[in-house]
Amino acid sequence: MYNNTFAFVVVIFILLVIVGCTCNF
Question: Membrane-spanning regions, if any (predicted)?
C-alpha cells in the first residue's frame, strides 16, 4: 500500500517547484 503522507509531501513539493518557477518569470 502507498503511504498517503509520502504522496502528499510529493504533491506539495511539486506545487512549490511550479510556483517557484512561475515567480522567476
Answer: 6-23
* pTM passes above 0.70: no
Domain span holding position 11: 1-25
Q: What whole-number distance in Å separates Cα of residue 5 and Cα of residue 15? A: 15
Tens place of pLDDT per residue across the chain (25 aa) = 567 889 999 999 999 999 887 776 5
Task: Look up residue 13 and give its amino acid.
Answer: F
d(CA 22, CA 8): 21
